[in-house]
Amino acid sequence: MAMTTIAVSRRQALAGAGGLLMAVVLPRARSRAATVTRIVEDQTGPFAPNAFVRIAPDGSITLILPNVEMGQGIYTGEAMLIAEELDVGLDQIQIEAAPADEAYVTKALGTEATGGSTSTIATWKSLREAGAVARTLLIRAAADRWVVDPASCQSEAGVVRHVPTGRTLTYGELAVEAAALPVPSGPVALRDPSTFRLIGHAQHRLDGPAKVNGTATFGIDIQQPDMKIGTVAACPVMGGVLLHVDDRAARQVPGVRDVLTIGNAVCVVGDHYWAARKGLEALAITWDEGVNATVSTETVYRQLHEALQGPAIVANTKGDAKTAIKGAAARVEAVYQQPLLAHAPMEPINCTVHVTPERCDVWVGTQVPMRARDAAAEVTGLPKEKVFLHNQYIGGGFGRRLEHEYVTQAVQFARQVPYPLKVIWSREEDLTMDRYRPAYVDHLVGGLDAHGKLVGLSHRIVGPAVVARWAPEALLPNGVDDDLLVATVETPYAIPAMFLDYARRETPGVVTAWWRGVGGTRGVFVIESFIDELAASAKVDPVAFRRRMTEDRPRARAVLDLAAEKAEWGTTLPEGVGRGVALQYVFGSYLATVMEVEMSTMGTVRVRRAVVAVDCGRVVNPDQVVSQIEGGLIFGLSAALFNEVTLKNGRVQEKNFNTYRVLRMNESPAIEVHLIDSTEDPGGIGETGTAAAAAALANAMAAATGRRYRRLPLTGPQA
Amino acid sequence: MLTLQVNGTAHQVDVPDDMPLLWVLRDVLGLPGTKFGCGIGQCGACTVHVDGKAVRACSLPVSLVGRRPVTTIEGLAEDEVAAEVTKAWLEIDVVQCGYCQPGQIMAAIALLKGNLHPSDDEIDQAMSGNICRCGTYRRIRAAIRNVAGAV
Amino acid sequence: MRGLPHEAGGRALRRGRAFDLPGIGTIYAPNITPDSETGIGRYTDAQFDSAVRRGVGPGWRHLYPVMPYASYVKMTEEDVRAIRAYLMSLRPVHAPAPANQVRFPYNIRVAMIGWNLLYRPSGPLPDDPGRTAAWNRGRYLVEAAGHCGECHTPRTMLQALSMTKSYAGAMIDGWLAYNISSDVDSGIGAWSDTQLAAYLSTGHADGRGTAVGPMADVVSHSLRFLTPEDVAAMVTYLRSLPARRSDETIGVVSPETLAQLAPIHSNGERLFAGACTGCHLTDGHGRQVDFAALWGARSLGETDGRNLVRTMVEGGTLQTAHGAMVMPAFGPEYRNQDLADIANYAISHFGNREGHVTARDVAAARGGVSP
């Protein structure tokens, strides 16, 4: 058996806050373990060679997973990575959400975070190592007990076997002795991929049973003794403050217990949500709305379009694009516009907090546990190690829970009361107090030579730099948000000369944030729309045009060809039906998407079919890759077809699903996903489908109607 | 004081007449499997059965439930159709974030109990009032078809 | 009664609701809280009575007949005093009503003297001894206190109620106030007493739909507080109104029949399945509450979908004994063509006739006034 070897640092994981880790056992494991388990760095205690594996003498095997589960199937994928090397079955383990701890920092994101389709990329090696280290120690412990050569022992499904004699010991029986062994400082053998039992083979989701029988606990489901429930009204204009609240009527509502205020919001607390809600409606609140009270959607777009002229920061140059375009046989030019978008996950924003003089407990679904913990510490004045963050299943993240301002707010209210307080935002509060995907305007100019070949591309991006707020240290020294380079500089194409500059314009009146697909979603729409426009100008079929530009990019070419073939590209379609293609390289994965759309004369758009070919490197759990692309496409199609957050007098106008429309079952296309076998390291997948949606759809609509669609949403008044 | 029949048990609850059933289930009876999504009947996350029919608990005042039996996702243990639906859901790995799924499952069971072999159109009619932001629609439809095939 | 004219969005009685009168202008209902400067705090009983029943405010300010004094004149002095006593018990709110914007010649208030001479009845209705006490009580409630005809009877050029078309239905604020005469096909002649009583007292009757728009306001803030005897009296009187045929009759498909019909495949049907069936169901039975039952609703029987579109655009709220029944607004998000498609689907599906709602009609409804 060929083995790859890699170095493992000593006990890199257990470090953390004095070795004290808190973890909430997820519902699947509820029947088998206490709800809160404490890990101490105790050599005689349970076997915990790193932050990801824990085996107790009773035989229970607990995997602590560094990324939070918000639908993407990461608990299952990461458990597979550890279990593969630990040599246990998925039916032998229980899983825990990682606590807030340095041990779980995602390097690419600079904090403990789940986002940017980074999870599998980041843990592909480290979690397998964690499993391998544990298995190595267990085998050594068995060999020591039997006084035999470890090489004569094998592991299998949670048991170590001495091959010559057939003797066996379970991992549980070995836990105490294994814990006493020093963690290897040298290389640990990892399995050869050809021997994988789990990785690459479809596994059912570990969170499936709890999610179909209703026992999965989301943040909003937390129950604590003596808990009360609050709901919030924050100043509807960003930056405004509370001047006065008349709560006399609210306090008369049966079940209302308290009316709490902070600088910019009011929280009514009741025995149940309904009392709180009725109480909130009975408040007479006076706000000082501040400077943003005049902001409108028109203001936002005007500022963006104005910045198409004037100075900008050079973000990327390759060759001399301007000269190439000047000398080109044909010149193509387009301006694209994309709106503010809300996340609108199904689970409205919520956070449960209990503050006592000694400690603060926070139960919440968060993509950034350390930031959430630190925020609670700051508000309460407690040291960080006195704040206990219990991360929960998230009912849809999409980037919303990379923010933690709602945790800060909940702690600000909860510190005013002695009881545990669950704060639940109404859907209206959730949509109007979201942190929004920015609006962008892009201007592109391309030059084609006499053979219809792209010789130069000039591109200006205008929009906010989300990274400047979210992780200021990650803003490039020249002031460019490198998220904007995703899909615009790193394309699947060979482009001889490129020039990209960036005019940063922050959006007034809202806070902008990450949203599913981040730079990829905005970039793929712009680039792939423009590639289609270039192809049209060159009078070349869109797929053929892209094939010509991917001659030296075999992985891109392969997905393009596969998608075109499976979608029957080139076959005749009925009147009013069009096909569009989009090719992308984002999050380390290649996708080609062919969308088929039917347009009625009344302007009704019906997406009939989507065919996706994917090369995301080595696949951990194939069916979950398919699932993420299906779901990502639907999420992207909702936005591309319908969604735009608008502002009037500084207030967000979209308040619920009647005014922020999302795709429904009967509007969803048939989706086929085809995976390409690959031995490359894994790429990200959770956001790729979303990034693909708008471009493929806009190109399909253009094919169906003969006119270009440069403004999103595609059925909105702007289009 | 109202008497509510939930999952086969009678509960006495002292709540306002206009309190939606959803909040009685979640905050008074401690049954959080039924989810809050929109509060205005647009998303279906709160779907439960009242007298066997799928209703939106967020928009049903508890005083209008009367003596009709209420069934939530927590009360499906003995139900044959529910067992088949659950099985199909797991077989196809429908769920992603899972938040809307109790509502989806309750809607699907109500559909199948009235019509064991629904056409795709009938599935769409019955299920399109339930939003899934993760976009599991294709798999939901496939799971419902599988139940229809299995029974 | 056009809802509670002196109320807007829960700020009861203090801020004027706007009445847009096509060709005439906008008239605001004034503050009627006991505030001494902006309300009725300084009115004497006589002044209050004069304003309510004669349309003449203090200082001989002639009120416009938006204030239905032509109906209120038929009220008894005792009832008017009782109303004043109730209003004076409320918390005073200082809130001046916006200035009316009325075009010439309607802006000459003294012109109202002439109008009054022509059209204002002279005083309370004497009981008709040939009729039952219930009928007489019903007439008082319908004609005077309830002033039903102010909306349901068309107006003449000079804003007086037409006597020849009494209760035959009329346009008001862009809504069609339906024919409530006893015509079987276009009025309420086919309604059972139970249905009428249920509709008046709760805003909903099985097989007749649910009150929306201004009628929802009327039920929410007024009719649902009537005693069962008064409701029965109104039913008795309404039954006696002469039949007046109006243009459109009502078409309805029963839920049983609906279940047998083959589905319609259209954009409207698709949108309805997504955005509407969550509450209404495809057979119109309503889902969680009877108030969401569409079966038999008049708004789905009118082929121009006037009230239907307005309701879809704006949504609506009906207050009931079980809390507020709310229909969300779909206007802000859905395109005109989408809403027209949904309306036409619903009219064909529930009304058994071809709707002819256009995107233009929806655009007009967004403006609050029908084309």
Strand content of chain A: 15-25%
Number of strand segments of chain B = 5
* CATH topology type of the largest domain in chain B: Ubiquitin-like (UB roll)
Q: Biggest interface in this structure?
A: A-B, 66 and 58 residues
**Termini distance of chain B?**
42 Å
Major sheet characteristics of chain B: 3 strands, antiparallel
CATH class of the largest domain in chain A: Alpha Beta
Largest sheet of chain A: 7 strands, mixed
- Rg for CA atoms of chain B: 15 Å
Helix content of chain B: 25-40%
Instruction: Enumerate the strands of the largest sheet of chain B in spatial order, edge to edge or round the barrel.
Output: 4-3-5
Topology:
The complex is a heterotrimer of chains A (719), B (151) and C (371).
Chain A: E1 4-7, E2 21-24, E3 36-39, E4 47-50, E5 53-55, E6 61-65, H1 74-86, E7 93-97, H2 119-146, E8 153-156, E9 159-162, E10 168-170, H3 171-180, E11 187-190, H4 208-212, E12 228-234, E13 241-246, H5 248-252, E14 256-262, E15 265-270, H6 273-281, E16 284-288, H7 297-306, E17 313-318, H8 321-326, E18 330-338, E19 350-355, E20 360-364, H9 369-380, E21 387-391, H10 405-414, E22 421-424, H11 427-432, E23 440-448, E24 454-463, H12 466-470, E25 498-504, H13 518-537, H14 542-548, H15 554-566, E26 577-586, E27 589-599, E28 605-615, H16 622-642, E29 647-648, E30 651-652, E31 670-675, H17 688-705
Parallel strand pairs in A: 6-7, 12-22, 20-21, 24-25, 28-31
Antiparallel strand pairs in A: 1-11, 2-3, 4-5, 5-6, 8-9, 9-10, 12-15, 13-16, 14-15, 17-25, 18-23, 19-20, 19-22, 23-24, 26-27, 27-28, 29-30
Helix pairs in contact in A: 1-2, 2-3, 9-10, 13-17, 16-17
Chain B: E1 2-6, E2 9-13, H1 21-28, E3 47-50, E4 53-56, E5 70-71, H2 80-92, H3 101-114, H4 120-127, H5 137-150
Antiparallel strand pairs in B: 1-2, 3-4, 3-5
Helix pairs in contact in B: 2-3, 2-5
Chain C: E1 18-21, E2 25-28, H1 45-54, E3 56-57, E4 61-62, H2 69-72, H3 77-88, E5 101-102, H4 111-119, H5 133-145, H6 149-152, E6 170-172, E7 175-177, H7 193-202, E8 204-205, E9 209-210, H8 213-221, H9 228-239, H10 255-260, H11 267-280, H12 306-314, E10 316-320, E11 323-327, H13 336-351, H14 359-366
Antiparallel strand pairs in C: 1-2, 2-5, 3-4, 6-7, 8-9, 10-11
Helix pairs in contact in C: 1-3, 5-9, 7-9, 11-13, 12-14, 13-14
